[in-house]
Amino acid sequence: MVEDARDIAELVQLHLCDEGHEVELAFDGVKGWEKLQARRYDLVILDLMLPGIDGLELCRRLRAQRGEGEAYVPILMLTSKGTELDRVLGLELGADDYLTKPFSIRELMARVKALFRRVEAMKTAGGASGEIAEDCASSEGIVGREKICSGELCIEIIKRRVTIENELVALTAKEFDLLYQFACHPGRVYTRTQLLDGVWGLGYEGYEHTVNSHINRLRTKIEKDPAHPRYLLTVWGVGYKFCDGDD
After folding, report:
1. Per-residue b/e over 175-199, b at no fewer than 16 CB within 10 Å?
2. Domains in the chain, ordered, with CATH?
3. Which end of the chain is more exposed for a tag (fewer CB within 10 A), N or C?
4. List of the chain residues with pLDDT < 70
5. What is the pLDDT of residue 72?
């Protein structure tokens, strides 16, 4: 955890240790980057405003240095700013989730548990190609057991890669999970609550606008005209769906 407010950092450390985690602290961005270079962590909690190197830059560096085949490290960002721009910047740079200060310890622990659940699901994806194929057996556009393709959009499930017309699309972990959830069930309509449960995890203490913001970001990345989407469609008064042969 990289957090310059020592009282907050030590309180979070105490509660995470009570849950059986080992927690290392850094109180500025420079020391935090040194620790992040020295070893691999299972989770990184970053404050946005840090002396030396800020949280956004640390997040950018972490995502930029990830090597081929290297395990994914989730990032939870903390910010005392509540503006949408700050949240979007963090998510666009690769943060998986965020909390706005002041936050409750209970909510932070719930977010941490949800992130670990998502990472475990990612780890088992490589060995679950049969389950993936069965789950998507009726989905139009399946190629083998490792890809879902629709038009120019191609999702490589095990590699967690998305391309449009063979051009790589940079998605955060949550954006990929959301797109995969849709693409595996074309034509199925999901409510925002169903997506919160399925993608963010049961018991996630988020709000429905979290789904809206992720849908909007996904559309800007995979749609030629986000105002008139081809893949992620709005079903007015209900929710969203992925295009199928009838659309």
Report:
1. bbbbbbbbbbbbbeebebeebbeeb
2. 6-125 (3.40.50.2300), 129-242 (1.10.10.10)
3. C
4. 66-70, 81-92, 121-145, 201-208, 245-247
5. 76
